Amino acid sequence: MHAGRSVEGMGCSTVGVVVLVTGVARHLGARFAAEVRRRPGVDRVVGVDVQPPGLPVEEPDGPAAPYTFHQLDLRRPVLSRVLAEYQVDTVVHLSVSATGLGSTNRSAVKESNVIGTMQLLGACQKAPGVRRLVVKSTTGVYGSAPRDPAVFSERIQPKDPPGGGFAKDAAEVEGYVRGFARRRPDVAVTVLRFANILGPSADTPLGEYFSLPVLPTVLGYDPRLQFVHEDDAVAVLCRAADEPLPGTVNTGTFNVAGEGVLLLSQCARRLGRPTLPVLLPAVSWMAVLARQTRLVDVSPEQLRLLTHGRVVDTTRLRETFGYRPAFSTPEAFADFAASRGPGLLPPERLAAVTDRLSALLGPDGPAAVPDAVPNRPRRPRS
Amino acid sequence: MSAAAENVPGEAKVIPIESAPSWNSPDGPGLADRLAGAVGGALSGQLGPAATRMFGKGWEGRATERLAFLRRRLTGDYEVDEFGFDRELTEEVVLSLLRPLAEKYFRIDVQGIEHIPAEGGALIVANHSGTLPLDALMTQVVVHDHHPHRRHLRMLAADLVFVLPGVNELARKSGHTLACNEDAQALLERGEVVGVWPEGFKGIGKPFSERYKLQRFGRGGFVASALRAKVPIVPCSIVGAEETYPMIGNVKTLARLLGLPYVPVTPTFPWLGPLGMLPLPTKWTIRFGEPIATDGYPAEAADDPMLVFDLADEVRETIQHTLYHLLVQRRSVFF
């Protein structure tokens, strides 16, 4: 539904590209596979995942057939066959994820992330046809700690790296990818560190948190958060999977986040959801309880994010990679908020109360006040 | 200010958001209507003239401004920068709360504010003292209030600040960040005025007997940051903060237990309980010295340890001499 807006910079220089996408059963993977299939020059898209895609990929107007799906477990060495069979030249690895498909068992998720990547890289190393590798990572590799710099650039080594969970998986995956890049210097390798992806239909753990009627927060902390809209995420992946545009470089490591920062308190107010500040130990305890009752999946690293926050520098994305996200962080959040129902304290209603009060103060007061309050940007600039 | 104003036609347009649900619930007037009606009725009655008598003329205008501020806060309609600096909150709340302390309590005499550039980055380096970082907060107030361009001082704070709940939130919202090279350089390159207290805990937690003796200036990282960003260094000398909480003892065991750098004992704390937390009403002087230019050095100067140490020493000497100079001029600690 947002496809028309997100696809830009469709410059394509190669003909007959075969793209292999892992993790197509998930929302982002499915959207990327559909998007990249529409791009000129892409001959075939092969999607692999452990289970068939939940939502069928529809192609209402495109002449292209949907991608070829292969159900396989990345942890088993069967990918080489697929790579050889379709003569794949671009591999887009999207299956490194915080949550498992179907299983929430942490060790199974870790195995699928890390062992899966190792198998994938091993297969790629043996496949002479592979020319390009794109890996989806997370800004979680920087961790969230009070003793780290406020803004992470790609070069900063965090003092307090993530000690476990998905972020550690991603850090390990990045390590293996660096090793692969050394062994296969002829392959263009791109690592994209995404901030939390939000969108009207993206179902991420943070999205689940923001759907709670009352948001538990950590007392005494107001973390800075950054989001990237899923349209931008798909567009960045498409760019990375393609030849670089003139004057830009699309290999290397890039932070991907919308411009600007929102505080958690700000997010809650814009959503119209009341917050419930809780002492840090009690929050940890609540998170464990919520996990066990399968109410919401709040991982310890997500809890750290919601305590200390994290902001990354996106200068390299804009200047070297040559992509300026269409949605800023507030805009991405607004688009997400619009897709959720109104909270218990809708901002419109609060605004109406104050406006009504100031209207009562009559023409003596600055009459322009209701107009002076800028409308929040709900739509992207472009 | 009359109840008639309640029905001005223009007020319906203040719901600009397409997703806005109808705020008039179908069953009768909503809370907003009832509240507005009640307030309107009261104001058109006897309360209106009474309010004018009480708050003076033009109170409606001020109240409208406060309501607009309240509206922005309640709906989250404000911006913070990447470091979490909330300009509106800082100007409207934090500085307003600190201002009486600076103007009425410490009666700060500000000198040399013209040495802070009107625009572009600058690094203010100051002496640290007084057990609690009141000197840093007061410097923030005077830089904003006395500078013709109302510049905001972005301070580099110890990591303890960002570990403590509550404190970290306030520090980030008032524009401060962790004292590390990356953050310092990022702020300076954005053209911000950055404040640093290089003595750190050695300076602020030194015993009263060593007052106005500058401690070691760390590793001189602040000089390297200024050299890389090519911004001037403005030495700043603060007199009066040393005597706000004269530290005559330090409960080291308790400090270790609490993970704090020191637990002070002053003539009033902890003997008088919470009352002992009250700073002594000393008379302060804050003097900003001649800026030390760094743009004349080559790009690799920041990696030259000798140059960095020399510059750090120069800044330190300047501050120390200015302190002695100001102390000689001072008539009394309290006046």
Task: Kindly describe this structure.
The complex is a heterodimer of chains A (382) and B (335). Chain A is an alpha/beta fold. Helix content of chain A is 38%, strand content 16%. Chain A has a 7-stranded parallel sheet, sandwiched between helices. A two-stranded parallel ribbon of chain A has the order 6-15. Chain A has a two-stranded parallel ribbon with strand order 8-11. Chain A is globular and about 75 Å long. With 335 residues, chain B is of the alpha/beta class. Chain B folds into 2 domains: 30-77, no CATH class; 87-244 and 279-329, Glycerol-3-phosphate (1)-acyltransferase. In chain B, the strands form 2 sheets. A 7-stranded mixed sheet of chain B has the order 1-9-6-2-5-3-4, sandwiched between helices. Chain B has a two-stranded antiparallel sheet with strand order 7-8. In chain B, helix 3 (87-105) packs across helix 4, helix 7 (181-189) runs parallel beside helix 9 and helix 9 (221-229) crosses helix 11. Chain B is globular and about 75 Å long. The two termini of chain B are 47 Å apart. Chains A and B meet through strand 13, helix 8, helix 13 and helix 14 of A and helix 1, helix 2, helix 5, helix 6 and strand 4 of B.
